[in-house]
Amino acid sequence: MNKGVIIVLILIFSLVPAAWAAAEDLPDTVGVKGGFIVYVGCEVGKLLASLGANDGFVVQGLSEDPETVSAVREQVKSSGIYGKVSVGIFNGKQLPYVDSLVNLLVVSDVSRLSADEIERVLVPGGLALIKEGQYVSGFKTASVVSLKGWKAFKKPWPDEIDDWTHFLHDAQGTSVSNDLIAGHPKGLRWTGGPFWARSHEHTASMQAMVSTAGRIFYVMDEGPTESIQLPSEIFLTARDAFNGTVLWKRPLHNWFNPLYPLKSGPSWLPRRLVAVNDRVYIAPGIGQDLICLDAATGKTVRTYPGTASTFELIVSDGVVFAAVDPDRKPIDYNQQNANCWTERDRASKIWGWTPEKGIRLVKAIQAESGNLLWEKEMPVAPLTLTADMSMVCLYDGSAVISFDRNTGSELWRAKVSKAKLFGTGYGGPRLVICKDSVLFSPMKEIYAISTNTGQILWSVRNKPRSGHFSLEDFYVIDNKIWAMQPRNNGAFTTYALADGSMLAEYINPIQSFYIHQRCYPGRATVKYQLPPIMGTPVYDMAADTWTNNHWFRGGCVYGVMP
User: Fold this and answer.
1) Helix or strand or coil: residue 318?
2) How many CB atoms lie within 10 A of CB 55?
């Protein structure tokens, strides 16, 4: 372990109170708010039951002794919470878990466990508490901090893991993760219900998902699957990202109409949820103000007045930028055609976006204080609100406009193609802030605009349409623009970020069965492309190799999150 990590450990554990509570209070004492707890060497079922009684915890006790396991198991069963709390046998040397699964490992009997084995099963940032007097081979002396009655080890967080804080990864709209670990799928790590979506012909059940600091947060309609006509049951759920433990849930009332027809989106719906570090920001429903929640507990930290019916939001460097639709009312859907495709087209026309119908209040709000910095009333095209450290950008239907993020004063205005109707399934164009350029892509076009002057640096016309009932699909990686082609097997065209010149084509050569592109945008990391083709193929850009994964895919509208 390097010196930097040692210093962090000392700083963290110097804050732990000298006087320790009972063992069942250990998670709260050391700041573990939820997740998977493993107690090695446990002999008291009541202790396990008391640990598992806390919301947000799943607990397992381990012992080498079959008689101890049997006795403790009966004690846990008598408590009435067996399942959430369980007891198992192990060989004393190998913990029966995949890598990076356990949030808190409490060890009262080390047996033959090594430091490497303990660290292997801990999640990044996970904590091991080893009872005083027990010896673990392999720990460097300085990596273990002594506490009263225990020694503690905290697994460092690797730089290779990135967060996915917004629908499009970040406030700049890049959809590209810096994660170096996410990549080829090799199996299921964990599963969690509900296991069936409500309907394919109406609003998708999975409606938003983001991830930060080892937690995932998502909005899902968990209503009855027997009929979409039955009432919705929509929840915001927080899970541990490494083991799937449900940390907390909050019901969302009047979140959205569940009856949007097939493939009609709306594509902007996932933009109502953002999570950054220890905060979750959500527009909870029609007529309700934007709220900020504690990521660990789900409790409301603050409400932002004057933000009722927020259409979309992003969070950038401590500021919430929200496109608010204060006059928005719940949509009463009255199906007029038995054919779901006819209804889709009708819905897109009725509820689609035009500059005249898309007037919003754009608000800049200090995230922690809730103070309003500025606001403007103007058209805001779906999925185009973006921000970086110096400016906020959006498309108003005829121009890409840049504002000073602190004052709201207009910096520049770049005239581009005028908008026609944006159907709710299409959602809108792609707008990305990247280095010295703002990249704007309406259908079949790309514009590169100088972030300093607003001058159009170059443009590509007659670009292949990308996306299938979703916004335009392109990514900026290594000074290249990777634009999806409308091929069912998967293909990209690359353009030079400097001048827009076409560079190359990358086409999936694997002969297989392919259906149409999926109805959601793709995703990317700095290593891999994850286009929405059939299942979830992985394109390794460095090796120029494709791998098909027909065994899993994302749901309509949202897709997948690396």
Assistant:
1) coil
2) 12
